Amino acid sequence: MMHEIVVNGRFLARRITGVERYGREILQLIGNSCRVERPGRILNGAMGHAWEQIILPRKVNSHSTLWSPANTGPLWISNQVLTIQDISPLEHPEWFQKSFAVWYRLFLPLLAKRVRRILVPSEYVKRKVIARFGVENILVTSAGVNEEVFHPGVSRHSFDLPAHYILFVGSLEPRKNLAMLLQAWIKIKDEFADMWLVIAGYAGKVFQPVNFPHEMERVRFLGYIPDADLPSLYAGAKLFVFPSSDEGFGLPALEAMACGTPVIISNGGALPEVAGEAGMVFNLSETEGLLKAMRVCLCDERLCLSLREKGLSHASLFSWQKTADLVWKALNES
Hints:
Layout: E1 4-8, H1 18-30, E2 35-37, H2 45-55, E3 64-68, E4 80-83, H3 88-91, H4 98-114, E5 117-120, H5 123-133, E6 138-140, E7 165-169, H6 178-188, E8 196-200, E9 219-223, H7 230-235, E10 239-242, H8 251-258, E11 263-266, H9 271-275, E12 280-282, H10 289-299, H11 301-315, H12 320-332
Parallel strand pairs: 1-2, 1-3, 3-4, 4-5, 5-6, 7-8, 7-10, 8-9, 10-11, 11-12
Helix pairs in contact: 1-12, 6-10, 8-11
């Protein structure tokens, strides 16, 4: 019987964040050469896990290789390539709803030792997975940027935003460290009277709630932004700020660079690895680190131009096609 690649398409029913973008972008490039299995309707939580553990294995025969691109997969299929985007539910369960964290802490170590190959988005996650699970069959397949979509010349968005704004894009969850960003904004806003802070993203159901005031001076919360509107939002920003405590990759920072926006990142997780020399990095352990980075960028046009040029060059190194080729090769290895 001919060897077949099957894709675990459970992730296709979810709202698109970084994990889902990775799966969708690669599937778009390899989809004609594989079979996608997905639930017939949207299944969340326990029902989604039940489909993945009970129904999906029945659709995969012994001659097939299964790719599970979104952190979970059926435990009973060993001929499986699993993408682990990060292991923060194991390392920081306090950031997540208890049931979600408990499931991953029990399940993921078993799955990681069962599958044939593990894919990760960064060397940072690779080190974490090796240390946590004691496995060696790991390949780094980073995320990418579609420069036909994310580029500086994107037309102005329709959000009715002010002309000058600092941007954050990401889930509203504890890991993203929004409290630090808002505290820095409170201290710096009066120095830049025409500047606003714009926060795009929503609070997913699996995260612990983040408590911060939604009524603040010159702060806009946009909620969830569809993929089609992201490029113009990035391109219109004066700065993009990503102060996360931990990231397995940090795709929004790379997308902002591709749109020609200067990027400030923390030294959390894989962010320095992903941004290289193209972003301004602040140290999470320094109380005023983010504030200082924002101030110097807003005051120094030459620095912003340099960050813009470095960011554009750096983002061009990350190709979804390159990643898809690596994934496809891993799926077809015997």
